[in-house]
User: Fold this.
Amino acid sequence: MTTATTTAGPQRTRSSDTGPRSTVVRRLLALGRAEGVLLLRNRTALFTALLLPVLLIGGLKNVLDQQAESSPGLDVDSLLVNGAVGMVLAFVVYYNLTAAYVARRGELVLKRLRTGEARDLEILVGTAVPSVGLALLMCGVIGVVGAATLHLTAPVNPLLLVVGLALAVATLMALAAVSSAFTRTVESAGITTMPVLLLTQFGSGLFVPLEVMPERLADICRLLPSTPAFQLVRVGWFGTDGSAAPTGFAGTWATAAPHLVTGSVWLALAVWGAVRYFRWEPRR
Assistant:
């Protein structure tokens, strides 16, 4: 009897340990699923994510056509696709995520999540999962539609294209965390995000290509936070950033090197700013 009792105890303990354990992936998926439900219920956020970029892309086409008249040789089709991708990332990732961080902070959701198993980085990334997923899906649609209707060639360097997208998403996520620290309410997010959105649209080669700018102004714009990532996307797909003739797979790495360095520096600064200034609960 004593032996049976002794062996039964450990067996029950082992069976209780075989249940599902919380992992980073499961926590991110759970956070992302909850945030996705909230995004679907928010009509304003859906409008910003789905319709506003489409409307801006229509305006972008008209602007590029006008610029092509005064700048012969301007590749409007490649600029349109690159600008559309940048526009989607700016509004769906940066703007939507800034508003989401502010909303969850005001509802004390972020504060409560910190008392659980999820780490700080997991909370921030999990909140971003729906916005990032939606943005990448829209970028994929833009790529397919652009390739079919504009008869664009296949990406020259797909790896560099993926690196550019990843760098853009990571930088915009970090900037959203920084912007949320200076945003009191969801309604005021439209004001606090305006500087970054305007710099992204008009200074990162989306609405106004860098090659049509004065040389000194173009050099300054290449140093903006979002410009390197968008230039990497352009180089990865079309083999050029507009400063020289298109090259092949090997040549794209030399063209991309300065953008990789500048983009990495800005990503590090944005992450530092997020760690330094992000607030997990409302001010009292």
User: Anything to note?
Assistant: Residues 1-19 have pLDDT under 50 and may be disordered.
